Amino acid sequence: MKIVALLIFTLVSIINIYAQDKWKLVKNKNEIKVYVSEISGSNYYAFKAVMTVKSTEAEIIEVLRNVSNYPEWFAFTASAKLIQQTTNEQIFFMETDYPWPFSNECMNYNMRFVKEQGKNQKITITETDKKVDCKYSLKKASGYILLEPDKGNTRISYYFHSEPSQNIPSWLINPRIHEMPYQTFISLKEQLNI
């Protein structure tokens, strides 16, 4: 019985170590950490950014629900427009600014505000099947924002993965993908007045 327990413990430890090694820290500045990871079946990296702020969950959600202000603080956002909003969900259009010689790409997103068991608030971000009115629509996009209480503050984790529909080489995007969440978090702090 002890051997079985030891084997299970060892296996769980190996899985946890492997899972932790999946993410590579690429930026650690201004109390913001940004990680990147390869994604199975994709040439484009996912990112995960983490910071702790002296704001409440309600204050952060208020900023997230104000879609028309996204171009002011959400990095590389050319335009954004609210389509539909309820208490726990919103659908919005967002146009991502791509550098020359590429065109901007857009997508309609569904953002759901879900209170997890305990005290965490998870905001899922998924693509919708609603047709978008732009030349290029992202091939795929999904992620989440997790808000967790942290000693009177709020810890924000932002995960996202997307793929462009244009033939943009991954070697052009992957080395700079961390700048998007980093600049977004810097601007989010300003929106929250901290």
Q: What does this 3D model show about the protein?
A:
By secondary structure, the protein is α+β, with helices and mostly antiparallel strands. The chain has five helices and nine strands; from the N terminus they run H-E-E-E-H-H-E-E-E-E-E-E-H-H. It has helices spanning about 1-20, 55-65, 70-75, 170-175, 180-190; strands at about 25-30, 30-35, 45-55, 75-85, 90-95, 105-115, 120-125, 140-150, 155-165. A nine-stranded antiparallel beta sheet has the order 1-2-3-9-8-7-6-5-4. The protein is globular.
Top keywords for this entry?
194 residues; alpha+beta; 9 strands; disordered N terminus; START_lipid-bd_dom
Cα end-to-end separation: 54 Å
Order of the strands making up the biggest sheet: 1-2-3-9-8-7-6-5-4
Describe the global form.
Answer: globular
Q: Report the mean per-residue pLDDT as an integer.
A: 88
Largest sheet: 9 strands, antiparallel
Estimate percent helicity.
Answer: 25-40%
